[in-house]
């Protein structure tokens, strides 16, 4: 939204309100912006906004084919942000990191570190932005925090302490728990295809557990979930029974062989 509106800044627009996203740990899918546009610039405003949005729509076509934008005339208001504040708001948002930051050097097709600009709003004459960083590396999370601190200094913002932190967890594909789990998958033949082995750069309980028990082995498995971390998150119930069977078989194998995790 900031990218689109910034192109119309020379039309003497003023921001009235700006709100986007929902929960901090979900990927935002909607945003609402109210601006005041001089009557003699309304046609140019619509032209600029629609032209840039069509460019963005083409860029997102493979992953967000249903992205949409609507422009509506609403009743005027008595208060708005002045030109300087409007420009500053758009500048801060435009400079804010959002998306993939680093790919996993051991799994080149997987993202290791990313950040989401999850929630944004204007409240009591202040702009607030909530970021949600994800990584399987604690050092990478620290680097993301340092970069946000640099951004806050350069833009005159303040930054809060991190909250709801999850420690990083770097999986070990050579661990006995992983090897046994894969063997269980192959033995039971509940799926027609080989298991998909991959890394996720999300906050997992594995990181918390290993933080307390560093010598314990961990692996993360589960039934199929689609649209994770969005309002459309859904569990495919039919995948829970095969998942449970593989889990039981893996645990039984460890018990029979008297192995420790």
Write down the overall geometry. Answer: elongated
> What fraction, in percent, of the residue positions are helical?
25-40%
Rg, nearest Å? 24 Å
Question: What about the largest sheet?
Answer: 5 strands, antiparallel
Order of helices and strands: HEEHHEEEHHHEEH
What's the number of extended β-strand segments? 7
What does this structure look like?
By secondary structure, the protein is α+β, with helices and mostly antiparallel strands. It folds into two domains: 2-155, no CATH class; 176-256, Orthogonal Bundle (DNA polymerase, domain 1). Helix content is 36%, strand content 17%. It is built from seven helices and seven strands. It has helices at residues 2-6, 42-60, 83-95, 138-155, 176-188, 205-212, 240-256; strands spanning 14-20, 31-36, 99-103, 111-123, 126-135, 225-226, 234-235. The strands form two sheets. Strands 1, 2, 3, 4 and 5 form a five-stranded antiparallel β-sheet that branches. A two-stranded antiparallel sheet has the order 6-7. The longest helix has 19 residues, at 42-60. The radius of gyration is 24 Å and the shape is elongated. It starts with a helix and ends in a 5-residue tail after the last helix. The mean pLDDT is 88.
């Amino acid at each position: 939204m900031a990218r689109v509106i910034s192109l119309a800044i020379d039309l003497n627009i003023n921001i009235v309100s700006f709100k986007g996203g929902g929960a901090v740990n979900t990927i935002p899918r909607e945003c609402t912006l109210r601006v005041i546009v001089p009557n003699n610039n309304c046609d140019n405003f619509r032209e600029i906004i629609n032209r840039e949005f069509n460019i963005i729509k083409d860029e997102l076509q493979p992953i967000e084919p249903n992205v949409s934008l609507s422009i509506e005339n609403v009743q005027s208001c008595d208060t708005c942000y002045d030109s300087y504040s409007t420009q500053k708001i758009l500048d801060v948002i435009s400079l804010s990191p959002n998306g993939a930051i680093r790919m996993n050097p051991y799994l080149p097709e997987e993202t290791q570190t990313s950040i989401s600009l999850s929630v944004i709003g204007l409240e009591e004459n202040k702009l607030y932005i909530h970021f949600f960083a994800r990584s399987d590396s604690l050092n990478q999370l620290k680097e993301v925090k340092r970069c946000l601190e640099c951004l806050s200094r350069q833009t005159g913002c303040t930054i809060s302490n991190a909250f709801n932190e999850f420690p990083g967890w770097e999986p070990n594909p050579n661990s006995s728990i992983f090897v046994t789990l894969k063997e269980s998958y192959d033995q039971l033949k509940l799926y027609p295809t080989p298991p998909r082995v991959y890394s996720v750069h999300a906050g997992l309980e594995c990181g918390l557990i290993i933080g307390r028990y560093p010598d314990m082995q961990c692996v993360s498995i589960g039934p199929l979930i689609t649209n994770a971390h969005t309002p459309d998150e859904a569990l495919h119930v039919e995948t829970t029974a095969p998942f449970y069977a593989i889990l039981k078989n893996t645990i039984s194998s460890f018990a029979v062989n008297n192995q420790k995790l």
